[in-house]
Amino acid sequence: MSENGSCAIVLAGGQGKRMKSDLPKPMFEVLGVPMIDWVLDACKDSGIDDICVVTGFNHEVLEAHLNGVHTVLQEERKGTGHAVMMCREWLSERAGKDVIVLNGDAPFIDKETILASLWEHKAKNSSVTVVTAEIADPHGYGRILRSGDNLTGIVEEKDATDEQKALHEVNSGAYWFRGEALLSALDKITPNNAQGEYYLTDTIYILLSEGKTAIAYRSPNADVVLGANDRKGLLLLNDTARFAVIDRLLAEGVEFTCTDGVTIGKNVVVGKGTKILQGTILTGDTVIGENCVIGPQCLLDNTAVGDNTVLNSVQSHDSKIGRGAHIGPFVQLRPGSVIDDGVKIGDFVEIKNSCIGKNTSVAHLTYIGDSDVGSGVNFGCGTVTSNYDGEKKYRTVIGDNAFIGCNTNLIAPVKIGNAAYTGAGSTITKDVPDGALAVERADTRIIEGFGSKRLKSRIEKNNCS
């Protein structure tokens, strides 16, 4: 049950033909998150979890994504009023509630606007409250006609007089209704227009004609009106969201030397004093500590990073990085990696589903998969943990202060003891005790003349060139 006793209808049946895609329009992403999720998150942040989503085009994709949210299908697209009509049975069970109607492809509706407009709606005992915004360029939007707080009408661009076109307060497409008032008005709207559609805005005129109160709440967030009808509009939404996040982080003490290629998700947290360099992409629930340097060219998704860590050209997914680590360039941390404090990881290293202990050094050209590595370990270049035999994956365990020589192959399952040493070029197939040296190489065989014969044609070709 919603905390404030209200409910929401989200209109998400749009096809978005100009997107030239089979994806439902509300599923297009802004900062890596589908627009429908922005709207649903705003509802839930406002204490509204009683939600009905109206689906339409390619509804199976949207319904699978919504994963349990109540949906109704608008099989034929006959306007916004018709879309809300599809919720009549659901709405009739909530006739005594206030209901907000939102567009699933208008991602910038926010908690503050929802709650403030609801407060006005209740305080004025309004049957319908239209959420509006004042914007610099109102072209294409329905203009708000009002007398004080009271709404007297909404006039569309094509029907507006020159005087009305000069107005800058526009309709956001978000509305609060008293449930019983909305149900009553839905029964009275007709498709008597050039498009033959049922318009939700007609309910406002019906309620006004019946002497009901209708008001307009002007949101301080002008972006609530923004949506996207094509790829250009979607780019504008992404740029708007991107710079809004950057502006917020600047105010919180995060440094940007250049914003080229920088994209930071709406749920990302970055500590003060951290410097974000160009080409950095932070997504999901990534959390960055204080006084870090992230970038250039980093991609972190659902990654936690401790204070005072430096990441250069690192890709990390579903991983954790401790304090004071230095990682990169050209490092990949795959899901399940846990990098402890003070770890140093150099170029061309990949780590997967492994724990790397404090102050361990993985210099370069190394793969560590499905491993538990102690503290103070040193990896020589070219080390590989061979964790997969074609059927099963096995773990490698390396104790504290071990020294892994260059080009060591560790054939899992295998354990290297504390302060143990492996000789360069070894393929280790057996456990190595604490403090021991393991050298596992085949005897060298030298066959005279083999190379000269095998490479004869190549040598002749090179000599002729």
Radius of gyration: 31 Å
| Residues in β-strands, percent | 25-35%
Q: Roughly how many Å apart are the termini?
A: 80 Å
**Helical content, roughly?**
10-25%
Shape: elongated
Give the CATH superfamily of the largest domain.
Spore Coat Polysaccharide Biosynthesis Protein SpsA, Chain A
Secondary-structure-based class equals alpha/beta
Q: In the CATH hierarchy, what is the architecture of the largest domain at level 2?
A: Alpha-Beta Complex
| Overall CATH class of the largest domain | Alpha Beta
On the 0 to 100 scale, the average pLDDT is 95
Query: Can you count the helices?
Result: 11
Order of strands across the biggest sheet? 12-15-18-21-24-27-30-33-36-39-41
Which stretches are low in confidence, meaning pLDDT under 50 for 5 or more residues running? none
Key descriptive features of the protein:
465 residues, alpha/beta, Spore Coat Polysaccharide Biosynthesis Protein SpsA, Chain A, UDP N-Acetylglucosamine Acyltransferase, domain 1, 2 domains, 11-stranded parallel beta sheet, 21% helix, elongated
